[in-house]
Specification:
It is a single chain. With about 150 residues, this protein is of the alpha+beta class. About 35% of the residues lie in helices and about 15% in strands. It contains 5 helices and 4 strands. The longest helix is centred in the N-terminal third of the chain and has 20 residues.
Length: about 150
């Protein structure tokens, strides 16, 4: 029993050390990671904030790794990938959901056609429950927030 406790303690410390390196989720970029929501990518451990983000990441891990790197500010979202050469990926002009400004979207994300261009959302139900109620006002707000660069051409 004593040895089992030591193993759990060491494993817990290891998870905590890695989580300290990566503080924020690479999908919901302002949410802190949960050390229990883990995936492996290019031999590195990546932490997410929730199971939903794990599912999104798994749909297109190369895309989300590149997108997370592209939106980095002074503190990298994925410092553990600093020395990893990522596959070349063509990123969407739109990086974030217009209704969840801190949440990345990708080519597999639900979308609608609006004024002849695609607008991507984090969840299908956001389109049904929020966007469809007042698309003009939400479009205007998202444009003003700089969330829909595909309309700036």
């Amino acid at each position: 029993m004593k040895y089992l406790l030591i193993i759990f303690l060491v494993f817990g410390i290891k998870l905590s050390l890695h989580a300290a390196e990566q503080a924020m989720c690479p999908i919901m970029v302002t949410d802190e990671v949960d050390v229990e929501e883990v995936i492996e990518y290019q031999g590195k451990t990546i932490y997410m904030c929730c199971g939903g983000c794990v599912k999104v990441w798994k749909r297109n891990p190369d895309y989300y790794a590149a997108a997370a790197k592209a939106v980095q500010s002074d503190k990298p979202l994925l410092p553990q990938l600093a020395d990893v050469e990522l596959p070349e990926v063509k990123l969407l002009k739109q990086r974030f959901c217009p209704l969840r400004e801190d949440t990345l979207v990708g080519p597999e994300s639900p979308f609608i056609e609006y004024q002849g261009k695609k607008i991507y959302f984090y969840k299908e139900r956001d389109i049904e429950r929020k966007w469809s109620k007042d698309p003009e006002a939400l479009f205007k707000a998202a444009r003003e927030a700089g969330l829909l660069p595909q309309f700036d051409e």
